């Protein structure tokens, strides 16, 4: 398998596992969704960082569910504020 094929195999593997990981964070996803929905109701005002606590709880839960290692055993770190992996 080419290097490109191996990469896409890992990507497909992660995408297939996504629903299971997300299901592990149902309470956090619901809390975030309720916050965003309440902000977009008539009279609500959605703005940046309004639901930051709920989002951070969801992100932390999801990161814990996914784990911080890729299939090759390399440690993954998020660059603060960029969403980029390093």
TrEMBL record:
Domain of life the protein comes from: Eukaryota
InterPro entries for the chain: NDUFAF8
GO biological process: mitochondrial respiratory chain complex I assembly
Any one GO CC term of the record: mitochondrial matrix
Protein name from the UniProt record: NADH:ubiquinone oxidoreductase complex assembly factor 8
